[in-house]
Design brief:
By secondary structure, this protein is α+β, with helices and mostly antiparallel strands. The protein is 26% helix and 17% strand. Strands 6, 7, 9, 12, 13 and 16 form a six-stranded antiparallel sheet that branches.
């Protein structure tokens, strides 16, 4: 295994014909030329994240379908995955200093929210960085990622890696040994899942996503955002998080197992970002080369009970604005009146469950609380809660794809809407508004707005509820 220090740079700061992108393309080409059963090949490494093909050898069974999603291993597993992939590109390209570029789609909006030009369709870009299996507008550069889908303010507003009400920044402990669980953290939902949805094509499915070269630049940026969060916060010290073993393969094709504790001790200082993000508000940068102190995950989860639930049924999302009403009974009204007072220390959570789809919609759905009728949806408004995202897979061939529950802390929204006199004690209205790629500046605007896009693949939500936290 290589252990060369490497600097990861903003792909938008790189010369399209410079060393980093040339080495990346050469490394991909070399890996793609290898047989699919070679553990140093492009196909094998993509299958380590996920594959639609059933493993047929003991090695494939050990290494394929290993990605960790919907749980607190999401960030740590992907950090190791992209690091060892980076080693593979270094070896395959002959460039020992290669650092995986990151796609910083959140800053310099909307310019950097476009797919980086070397990855776009010809003549702007070219294979192997260009692949046709993406949204057509994203691939041509005529569409960009919507700003609400790349904003990470919700994730950075959370100071705990894990907390019960919304799974915190990094996600919750999984219920079992599954590479897809239901405890999504805030960073995984937005921007991680949202960007997967918006790019489209292979990126919408965990079983194909790593075949797209932009996948790796996307995850380099997610790792960078984790680093920014750690300027003010800390990772868990729980042994269950630090000491779970994972199999990987080195540049010679030899398998090995490693825990995140071992990885952090051995390789943690080898990666730096040329433009690390600012930390959460009020953050001071740690000393160069330093690390954030680690503190235990918050203690036992508080007892959670449902306060209010929408009527039984499956709620269809069809590409138009959809509203689900959640009736409030006396207990819920009383609890929310108390929670609206910050001094009370009570919290209100929104939970959206049983999310299913046949084909992924063309982007996430933004979620709003008590959005007034006729109001233009805005992710910066006090009504905005977060995004429902559709990065999931079918557990059985031909079955609908599913994603885990989405939980949001809506205490602030309850408090602000009560203060504005916009609270209805009889019901809470949860509004779902379709998102997805938007026209790039200067591009021709479609004749119909996104909410009227009736061809958008349908999705279903089976359960909407409010709970105490």
């Amino acid at each position: 295994m290589g252990d060369q220090p490497r600097v990861r740079r903003n792909v938008y700061s790189l010369d399209p014909k410079g060393a980093e992108l040339t080495s990346y393309a050469q490394g991909i080409t070399a890996m793609q030329a290898r047989p699919a059963n070679d553990p140093t090949s492009w196909t094998f490494w993509a299958a380590m994240h996920g594959s639609r093909k059933r493993p047929s050898t003991p090695l494939e069974t050990q290494l394929w379908n290993g990605c960790q999603h919907g749980c607190w291993f999401f960030l740590s597993w992907h950090r190791m995955y992209i690091y060892f992939f980076e080693n593979m590109i270094q070896a395959a390209s002959g460039d020992p200093s290669f650092g995986l570029p990151y796609w910083n789609y959140s800053d310099q909006y909307p310019q950097w929210a476009a797919l980086p030009p070397p990855f776009q369709a010809p003549p702007t870009g070219a294979a192997p960085l260009y692949v046709p299996n993406r949204d057509a507008g994203i691939n041509s550069g005529s569409s960009v990622l919507p700003q609400g889908d790349v904003d990470y303010a919700n994730a950075y507003a959370v100071s705990e890696f894990y907390r019960s009400i919304d799974n915190g920044f990094g996600g919750g402990p999984p219920a079992g040994d599954s590479h897809f669980d239901t405890e999504y953290g805030q960073l995984e939902m937005t921007p991680h899942n949202a960007v997967h949805n918006d790019v489209g094509g292979w990126m919408t499915d965990p079983d194909t996503a790593a075949q797209d070269p932009i996948f790796w630049c996307h995850h380099s940026n997610i790792d960078r955002l984790w680093e920014g969060w750690l300027k003010a916060n800390a990772d868990p010290t729980d042994a269950g998080w630090l000491d779970r073993q994972y199999p990987f393969v080195d540049t010679s094709g030899k398998t090995f197992t490693i825990t995140f504790r071992q990885f952090a001790q051995t390789y943690g200082g080898n990666v730096s970002y040329n433009d690390p993000p600012a930390g959460p508000p009020g953050t001071a940068d740690p000393p160069a080369g330093g690390s954030s102190p680690m503190s235990p995950v918050n203690g036992p989860a508080p007892s959670r009970r449902t306060l209010a639930v929408a009527p039984e049924g499956s709620y269809e999302l069809t590409g138009r604005r959809s509203v689900v009403s959640v009736p409030l009974q006396a207990e819920a009204r009383s609890y929310m009146a108390e929670a609206a007072d910050p001094a009370a220390g009570k919290r209100v959570g929104l939970r959206i469950d049983d999310i299913q789809f046949d084909e992924p919609p063309k982007g996430p759905y933004q979620v709003f609380l008590n959005l007034p009728e006729g109001t233009t949806p805005d992710y910066r408004s006090p009504y905005y809660v977060g995004n429902v995202t559709f990065f999931g897979h079918a557990h059985e061939p031909g079955a609908r794809r599913r994603v885990g529950s989405h939980r949001f802390d809506v205490t602030r929204q309850v408090s602000e809407l009560k203060a504005k006199g916009e609270w209805d004690d009889g019901q809470v209205k949860v509004t779902f508004v379709p998102s997805g790629p938007v026209p790039a500046p200067g591009a021709e605007t479609p004749g119909e707005p996104a909410e009227e896009e009736l061809s958008k693949p349908k999705a279903w939500v089976g359960h909407v509820s409010l709970f105490n936290g």
